[in-house]
């Protein structure tokens, strides 16, 4: 049974970008999901869908209506894309959506860091395998980072030009995206306990009683420690692997509620 579309159409600049992200979303849910399966669901030839997703063929009003109906979009959502065939000179929606995705999906920063690894290969299939994500996810992630000028690709040389920090966007988008990212990274940290040998990881913690008035100072010290760690070890030449470093500080007790 097909998973219903859950993306917000109004966050995309045109139907092509929406369709690419929907394809990537389905691949994320089911690693074996393919272009052929998506084409079969949409009831169009796989070759035609491939051309549409790559921008080699334009969407007609009739095609948008047909595919949008198959995806279960509402009349207002369909009209949004049909109006001018989803084409606009206003880049705000696309930039907002791109930045939201960069903040919410862990593999954007991971891909940027991967470009610095000495054995890095500028190949979508290799990157997908290295990060254990789908090829459509890898392709859309790469294109998004290039659009936002976080990644520069020139003569098969991939360069991280993001400045190591993601540009902030509207607070409501940032909050929701950051929560999604943090949840996924915590899930991956749990997976690593079972999948990664102890000598290749470190899961440690500390339980302590503190004065909550000191909380801001503690958080500041943690931030400074992260930056010092990155400066000393995260910016060396010839790195060999991409690692994720998580720290957690949260109350285990609820004294005030007693």
Biggest sheet details: 2 strands, antiparallel
Order of helices and strands: HHHHHHHHHEEHH
CATH topology label of the domain at 9-86:
434 Repressor (Amino-terminal Domain)
Strand arrangement within the widest β-sheet reads 1-2
Q: Averaged pLDDT, please?
A: 83
Query: Shape from CA axes?
Result: globular
Strand composition percent: under 5%
Q: For this entry, what is the oligomeric state of its chains? A: single chain
Low-pLDDT stretches: 85-93, 166-173
Fraction of residues in H or I helices: 40-55%
The top level CATH class name of the domain at 9-86:
Mainly Alpha
Q: How many β-strands, per DSSP?
A: 2
If you compute it from the alpha carbons, what radius of gyration comes out, rounded to the nearest whole angstrom? 21 Å
Give the terminus-to-terminus CA distance: 48 Å
CATH superfamily of the domain at 9-86: lambda repressor-like DNA-binding domains
Return the CATH architecture of the domain at 9-86.
Orthogonal Bundle
> How would you classify the helix and strand content by structural class?
mainly alpha
Describe the structure.
The chain has 258 residues and is mostly helical. The chain has a domain at 9-86: 434 Repressor (Amino-terminal Domain) (Orthogonal Bundle). It has helices at 15-29, 35-42, 46-53, 61-70, 75-82, 92-104, 107-114, 124-131, 135-147, 171-195, 215-234, and strands at residues 151-154, 157-160. Strands 1-2 form a two-stranded antiparallel ribbon. The longest helix has 25 residues, at 171-195. Mean pLDDT is 83; it is low at 85-93 and 166-173.
């Amino acid at each position: 049974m097909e998973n219903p579309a859950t993306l917000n159409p109004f966050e995309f600049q045109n139907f092509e970008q929406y369709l690419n992200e929907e394809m990537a979303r389905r691949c994320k849910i089911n690693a074996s999901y393919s272009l052929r399966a998506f084409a079969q669901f949409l009831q169009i030839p796989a070759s035609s869908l491939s051309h549409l997703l790559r921008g080699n063929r334009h969407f007609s009003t009739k095609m948008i209506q047909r595919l949008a109906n198959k995806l279960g979009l509402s009349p207002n959502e369909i009209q949004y894309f049909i109006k001018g065939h989803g084409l606009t000179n206003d880049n705000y929606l696309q930039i907002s959506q791109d930045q939201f995705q960069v903040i919410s999906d862990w593999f954007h920063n991971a891909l940027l860091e991967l470009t610095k690894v000495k054995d890095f290969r500028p190949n979508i299939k290799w990157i997908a395998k290295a990060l254990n994500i789908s090829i459509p996810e890898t392709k859309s992630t790469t294109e998004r980072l290039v659009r936002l000028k976080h990644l520069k690709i020139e003569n098969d040389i991939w360069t991280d030009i993001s400045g190591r920090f993601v540009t902030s966007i509207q607070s409501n988008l940032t909050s929701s995206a950051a929560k999604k990212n943090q949840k996924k990274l915590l899930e991956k940290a749990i997976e690593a306990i079972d999948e990664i040998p102890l000598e290749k990881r470190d899961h440690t913690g500390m339980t302590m009683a503190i004065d909550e008035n000191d909380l801001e100072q503690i958080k500041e010290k943690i931030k400074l420690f992260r930056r010092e760690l990155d400066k000393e070890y995260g910016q060396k030449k010839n790195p060999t692997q991409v690692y994720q470093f998580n720290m957690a500080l949260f109350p285990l007790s609820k004294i005030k509620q007693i």
